[in-house]
Amino acid sequence: MVTSLRSLRRVLVATIFVTSLFLLLTLYHHASQPSATPLRPDNSHVAAEAEKPQKPEDEVELVVASVRAEDTSWFHTYLPSWQKNIYVADDPGASLTVPMNKGREAMVYLTYMIDRYDSLPETVLFVHASRFAWHNDDPDYDALPTLQNFRLSYLRATGYVNLRCVWVIGCPAEIRPAEDAALKDNVEHIMAKHIYKEAFEELLPEISEMPEVVAVSCCSQFGVTRETIRSRPKADYIRYREWLLATPLDDALNGRVFEFAWHIIFGKEAVYCPSAAECYCNVFGLCDIPCKDDSCDGRYVLPPYSSLPKGWPLVGWEKEERNFTGPLLTPP
């Protein structure tokens, strides 16, 4: 009997030993295999980048009004993830072009709205081709930071946003349609004030009462949501383009009519001049700068000429060196 108990004990000990050994080997095997979900390295800097506002292709598109002489490569270099529609107005063979090179950027903008009416992205930014231009609302007249800092969330909330906050040229009372039409022999014809009333009545006949004052900061660069564009039927944009194609008005004038009509077309009041402080904060996130109603310190100064000097932004009008810190692939 004692012998039987001893034999049974040996069998139990051997069983436990074998089982333990098997479990240990199994655990070692699993530990030595690569994990199905590998641990990520410390990429905190990558995570920080990911937290920055992104502009995926289905969220925003750029519509660029250009001619062959303009260099649009900077859009591809500095905004690679943006969906870009670069129209070349004076090149009938371009992949994106217009029926006629007339009306400046207005013809491009209207052509995009007509062609893409049924497939618009959530938001659209309509811009000019040149990165550096006298009217860009930036201390260096640089369009790049304007686009990089633009707040899509504010555009979604308001439907239409001008890319220019400073009031100089356009606000607070650029055009007085009735008065300017009556004084058309004495007004500055390049600003289209004298023909605005007649053009307005032809383009927007549904607005029965002519605005006493029309004002918006220049210069036909803005953002619009899909819903805002579609608040008007496609037929309206076709009619606007037909007017542009048919009008005998000089090219500089017919485009300028739209420059001071886009905000009304998209549902804003005839006088659309938000304070500079409100605009810079809401549109670009620049909220802690000293401002007056019409401007903010260190943002925009009307240049002495309507063209930038050769060598800009590294060289100024007096051929002085400028401390430009933005990215430049090649010297201007």
Automatic annotation (TrEMBL):
Where are the annotated segments for Disordered? Answer: 35-57
Domain of life, per UniProt, equals: Eukaryota
A Pfam family that the UniProt record links to this protein: DUF3431
Report what the protein is called.
Uncharacterized protein
Species of origin reads Xylaria hypoxylon
Instruction: List, as start-end ranges, the regions of compositional bias called Basic and acidic residues.
Output: 48-57
